[in-house]
Amino acid sequence: MKNRQWIRGNHEIGRKVLINGGWNISAQDPAWNVWGREMISEPIQNVSFGEAKQFAACYRTPYAVFMANSFGYNARLLGFDGIRFDTVIPSYECNSLVHDCGWRDDDGNLWPSFSVFSAREAWKRLYRIFHGGVTPDGCIQTPNAAGPLMAVHSFSDHHEIGEGYYMHAKTLKDGFPSDMIRANMTGQQYGFRAEVSIKGGPMF
Ligand SMILES: [Zn+2]
């Protein structure tokens, strides 16, 4: 109720509200025991932080639909306008042959893969949810710490650079290293624009 009122208050003064989107699959959710394990990457990767206990997800599982539709469900329930994700594209590698992930080299060794087009389908679904499906004119925001993937990022409205450098650096030079920020994160060579969220840190 409190969240709904806060969101409504923002709408009344003309603001849109984006929630901060987490990623991967919580082992603390009751649904974990039912079908959490069907959606995680293999081998299992523990990506817990703080109090959150969670495992890396694979987009080539029902997770792609579950994740997007869960945000849609909650947007309908609470009335928010979009999501500001953490860096979720690309996600973690997976070598599950059950998912049709992974591949074998000539010597029979199993290697992991990341399904770009499974992530694309998830982002297409998210885009539809926040542009007509649930919210008429919403916003999907994706930080981009790992380079643009245009097949996926074409379906988000706003992009920002990864926060890892400028939140900890003491100088502009250290905070925005050209080889990472200009050459990798912004992807201007593809016409991909990314901005700084000015989230915090010693320089701001
Ligand atoms: Zn997989």
Any overview of this molecule?
By secondary structure, the chain is of the alpha/beta class. It has a domain at 2-23 and 59-161: Alpha-Beta Barrel (TIM Barrel), CATH 3.20.20.80. It is built from seven helices and eight strands. It has a four-stranded parallel sheet, with helices on one face. A two-stranded antiparallel ribbon has the order 2-3. Helix 5 (150-153) links the parallel strand 7 and strand 8 (158-161). The longest helix has 18 residues, at 116-133. The radius of gyration is 18 Å and the shape is globular. Residues 41, 58, 60, 94, 96, 99, 101 line the site of zinc ion.
Task: Give the SSE layout.
Layout: H1 2-12, E1 18-21, E2 25-26, H2 31-35, E3 54-55, H3 63-78, E4 82-85, E5 103-104, E6 110-111, H4 116-133, E7 139-144, H5 150-153, E8 158-161, H6 172-175, H7 178-185
Parallel strand pairs: 1-4, 4-7, 7-8
Antiparallel strand pairs: 2-3, 5-6
Helix pairs in contact: 3-4
Bound molecules: zinc ion (ZN).
